[in-house]
Amino acid sequence: MFVHAHPDDETITTGGTLAGLAEAGREPLLVTLTRGERGEVTPGPFAALEGTDGLAPHRQQELAAALAFLGVQRHAFLGVPPARADELSPTIYEDSGMAWGPDGRAIAAGDASRDALTSVPAVEALNDLLAAAYQAGASAIVSYDDDGGYGHPDHVLTHRLSRAVAQALGLPFWAITASDANTASDATGDEDRVEAHDVSDWMERKVAALRAHGTQLTVDGDDIVHVGGQREPIARVERFRRVPHVPLEG
């Protein structure tokens, strides 16, 4: 079970692995926690969607197209079955928003709505994610590292929820690990606990899925150009670090 905060995160960091698992018949489940309602939008034909009620449904359509390119058939938004606790009505967890801190990393926005992922009681979101993992028969959980990759509050909470579910169910937890995009070396020093997946065989699918997320990024040669203009190489190697469970006392 792959757990991501917003549409497009799944393709940028794990798209090749998702495509490889899907092709191998492993049927990965992707759970997306929000619809990215407060995301910035790239300049161009979709720019007018920024800050409007039309952005969320558009990003849902982008995600559906991306998953079709990757071959992923199992997907749920948190708060909607199968990612909703039994006997609770469906709900929507909204994007919490973010701001850029002085160090260039994301920090929490000061105006998150009461329905934002980081505003609602964490136990509700936790129970929904537990339900998703249990009903899917998950054998492992994949999500961000403890700082969410770049500090976005939704990413940080996604890590905490995912790791708690893995611990509760006794499942392996794999943290997405950033290092050089296209080499087998690891920058964390934890080579014994890191899996490096060469996803070259699925790059066409990954690039097509990236292009589907047109409100959030553009593809320029071998690079992703993010909405803020930041460039990032499209990773041909995707890395995951096995995070041990915290020993329980008593």
UniProtKB/TrEMBL annotation:
Zinc among keywords: yes
Keywords: Zinc
Pfam families in the cross-refs: PIG-L (PF02585)
Keyword Zinc: yes
InterPro entries noted in UniProt: GlcNAc_PI_deacetylase-related, LmbE-like_dom_sf
Protein name: PIG-L family deacetylase
Organism in which the protein naturally occurs: Leucobacter iarius
